[in-house]
Amino acid sequence: MADISHGVMVSLRSVVTYLDQILEYHRAAADADDRSLDVLIGDAGDSEPVRGFAASLCSVREDLVAVIAEIKRKSPSRGDLAADLDPAETASAYVAGGAACLSVLTDREHFGGSPEDLRIAREAVTVPVLRKDFTVDLRDVCDARLMGADAVLLIAAALDDAELSDFHSLTTELGMDALVEVHDEAELERVLNVGAVLVGVNQRDLTTFNVDPDRARRVAAVIPEGVVSVAESGVQGPDDAKALHRAGFRAVLVGESLVTSGDPEAAVAALVAAGSADGTAG
After folding, report:
1. Out of 56, 74, 233, 242, which one is annotated catalytic?
2. Active site annotation includes 185
3. Is position 232 annotated as part of the catalytic site?
4. Which end of the chain has the smaller Cβ count within 10 Å, N or C?
5. Nearest to 157 by CA among 132, 134, 129
6. How far apart are CA 129 and CA 118, in angstroms?
7. Catalytic site residue 242?
8. pTM of the model
9. CB–CB of 155/52 below 8 Å?
């Protein structure tokens, strides 16, 4: 993913971090993939119907927080979080708590995830599921549909404009939603230019990796009406969810604080209720 020939943005190349290593790993794997794209597109197009990801977020009452609850075993920065979690059990607990959608890490090397985790989680529930991974090739988009995903993640900082456009177009062609992740206003402009209607704002600074709520609020203020906005990273509990909801975000994507909570159903329910005036979802 870090190969300059693939158009990785300067902001990522200029800072040597674990993220650079992840991007390089996925780019190398894509370069070695000799499967026929046309065959993959045909197979993906024959997959079972998708569940509407953005539609599920929009179906949540506006006084509540739409929660995308993430199945995440570990992270490169923090190590094991819930390495032995049961994807079906965790997914069911999230949905019982009111999650509108799920996100499942499928990166095995760095996050301990797998396509199997996504398949198992999706079979256990009826809500839509996002494949959370580093999409760097059109084959990755096809693979997401083939493993049962209803949405894919596209990270603006890791893709050039042509890739963003091509990946977004194929995602929609295959019936899925694309959650397009940005970190600032310049990236927001880029993704809106390719037709993104589901935009995630990552609160984590790409250079320092610190969470910056001011960044999220600033970008939220310029997201156009009609675009579904999602706050990502650094949501530790109901207070964070409430602040982001008040800043204009329709949804939050939360992983680490849920898988380490000890009671994921209750933790999700608290996030959902955080959008209401008194903190209850009654």
Report:
1. 233
2. no
3. yes
4. C
5. 134
6. 8
7. no
8. 0.89
9. no
Q: Which residues pair with 75 in a beta bridge?
A: 79
Classified by CATH at the fold level, domain 4-273 comes out as TIM Barrel (3.20.20)
**59, 83, 160 from 251: Cα distances, Å:** 11, 26, 26
Q: Is 269 left (phi over 0), alpha (psi -120 to 50) or beta?
A: alpha
116 assigned to active site: no
Catalytic residue among 70, 163, 187, 256: 70
* 193 labelled catalytic: no
Contact 158, 8 (CB under 8 A): yes
Catalytic residue among 74, 187, 229, 232: 232
